[in-house]
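## Example record

The block below lists the input lines for one assembly entry, exactly as stored, with component labels intact.
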Amino acid sequence: MKRLLLVLVLVLMLGVVSLPALAQDAPTGTWLGTWPYAAPGTHNLNSFAAGGLNDNLGLVYRPFVELTPAYYLWATQEYVPILAESWGFVDDNAAYEYTIAEGALWSDGSPVTSQDVVDTFDIGRILGWTQWTYLTSVEAVDDRTVRFNFTEGGASLNAQRQLLKEHVVASANYGELAAQAREVAASGATNEDEAWTTVATAIEEFRPETLIASGPYTYALDAVGESFFTLSWQPNSLFSSTVRFGELKIWAGETEVTTPLVLSGELAHSTNVYPPATMQSFVDAGIRVVATPRGYGPALLFNFTVAPFDNVLVRQAMAHAINREQSALLTNGLGASGTVYMSGILDSIAPTLLSQETLDTLNRYEYNLEGAAALMEQAGYSLNGDGKWADADGNTINVEYTFPADFADFSAAARDATAQLNEFGFDITERALPWQEAAAAIRAGDFQLSVWSWGSGSPFAFQNFNNPMRRWTVALAEDQPGLQLDIEALDVGGETVDLNALILNVSGGLDTAAQQERADQIASILNSGMYYIPLNEMLSIEPVNEASIGGAPADGDPIYQNPSNDHFIIYLILNGTLFPAGM
Amino acid sequence: MTAVPAPPALPVSNTDADVNATPSWRQGLRRITRSYLFKVLLSGIITILAVTTLTFFMIRQMPGNPVEIRMDELMTRQGLTEEEARRAAATLFNFDPDRPLLLQYTDFLSDLVRGDLGDSITRGGVSVVSIILRYLPWTLFCVGLALLISFTLGILLGLAMGYWRGSWFDNLLTAFASIISGIPDYIIALLIIIIFGVQLQWFQVGAVRGGVDPTITPAFSAEYLLSILQYATLPILVYVLSTIGTWILAMKSSTISTLGEDYIAVAKARGLSEWRVLTGYIGRNAMLPLVTRLAISVGFIVGGTVIIEEMFQYPGLGRNLFIAISGRDYTTMQGMFLVITAMVVLSNILADLAIGWLDPRVRMGTEDNAQ
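Predicted structure tokens for the full assembly:
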């Protein structure tokens, strides 16, 4: 009996010892994704440099290597823990704190500590990170808790998001540089000083030999090929036991290069923007596609020094004269929808950021050619013998519409708007440019009509209103006129309004009711002034090949409300929802 | 009246030496400066300098600069605002867009004299020379081999078609060459990938991307070399298919015009064998106009074939040139354009020499002129 008991105890002990080891066995199966990473030779493992982790892994894959404190679920508007186990504003909102989860380790086996976070942000200060516009200091409260001290009034929900989305890097690699950064900052130097730029250069030129990962995957430079590189599972992460892919194979290239790979089944998921016809070929090949918000859409932009676009009645008439549902269909097939609220905030989140009262009162600029014609007549235009709108002097609206030829979605939106407006009686000529030139033309104010994005993949009103209203005006360099619209002294119904200040302030503080009130005001201004025409809101239609990936939630699952900035695969791979097909 | 001082007396031996040496030194210099090779080399250097200067200023006139392009990418890919993107881009790149252009140019020239092409603007800490040295061999191998195959096949087929013009062989290949030369290289690449890779599954699409199997350790081994050849096969095939049509048609046309020459009739009348007439008389003379064209093509090998390299993710210079242009990486663009220009100039010099070798009349003409 004693012998049997001894054997049982031994078996139990063995079980206790071996269970964690079994749980840490490397999962099998390969995730097949894509990202346009830097080629060998320029590819490096620096988390802050060009050609480093940010470029090579992007928003979608970097969280698998360097964890962020939390992940935002758009459907429920809440954060779920990743690297941190708790977080919140403290000291009457004078600071923010988060605590790193117990047991969080780096791939070298050392614990993730608050010093890693402090070092991350001290380096970020030298690099001019936005967070330092509202932070005064970052300090370690204890081994796992880190405190972010705000400037006066610096606390905001936007700040919370930026702190919880920032990847933490390992002090083992960056501690020395962080110490230099702290020293320079403490000396009172500014980014104009040589000492500051010397450290910035040292950070940029630093080339870590190994990647120390807090996420469940890591890689070395010899895993980087010309056409793909592979992230391999590592056992020490908080998520090493939950992820179910043994490796993540990342193919290089953009849309045209990855299309055959999707069709041949060698690429299972992609965030590339595929034309509608290509998407249809994926569906025809039996490949599932899922739709998530892309966080932007194409907008028709005006140069306000070009007549008659300085006339609000003409802009409103144009908004009525464009069938936005048609625009959406031609822009991105079923992966887009015509803008409804015309509020400056994406329709998908407008109901959460604006009051119902405001939403109800906004002019939706429904497709109405008669109404558009009435507005044109009110603006002093009449149709001439050729069916073109002409002013009292007989001048038709003969302008150019420049668009980026290499962006299939934006060029389709621009060409459709041109066709619809010409049908209505305008005389617009299309001008296709390489995207770099199209962007430069807007910056330089060297355009008449153009197309670029509006909205943002952010849950806050500021980023939504910012693009394009501030982006192409006050946010440009001094010598760049952009839209040539003075948004700091905007005439709104005879009253001068500083729209720039309103937008900058809209998401400030923690009072969501006050934020909504301010957002309502801006939405009304943009809606009545029609300073740009938000043609449609785009979805990201992404192939998810179920011959390769198992566990993808059904269409309509709340996780698909997350836009690309908080991509759904981050959450679903980390928590083990997605797994290799056939498991 | 002022007395004119007598010139100082020079040692006799020195004077004698100068008198004897000067004519031969001058003659030597004159001979060099009047030589064909010197003129060609001087003209080549001036051309390279002129093109480099022109390129330097032209690429900076392109709309957008590296910082702005990077900002646009950051805003699109990471959802940053313009201000956030500007802050991030400014620290990432060692580039001051406000530095006067002339100062940038003098910096460039002084570095160039020292053989330094500078660092890439968008790939921090990576020298342009290292980028060129890393990718040039791949392009030279892939496009060079493809050009050699395309030219050789094109010349042989065009010669045969011209000689046996009107035959079924001629008609068939003329149709083929006309059609294939009208199809852009990226369409051929796509068709091959989609039809043979995706639909017929003769090969795995992903397995033909890159320059070599990344799992094989680089070494001078048969396995590694075979892998390089295997990965280059499709890019070479696409290049050959997209260029061979023009070689075939040009050679056929040249052959037909050569057939009418008197010396061909004389050669035949002398009873020379058909093979001898075809290769020694027709082929050799018909090829002459194509040599200049080949020289230009050889020069442009370095530019690679941008789209083919991109489609197959081939690690060549062309793909990198595309990346550099897209990102407005001025220093990398300058370096690559300099290499392309030098190659074009050099290959044209070689073409001149080759024509002289192929056509003795050219050599004789040159010698006559020199006399």
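The domain at 132-370 of chain B is CATH 1.10.3720.10 (MetI-like fold). The radius of gyration of chain B is 28 Å.
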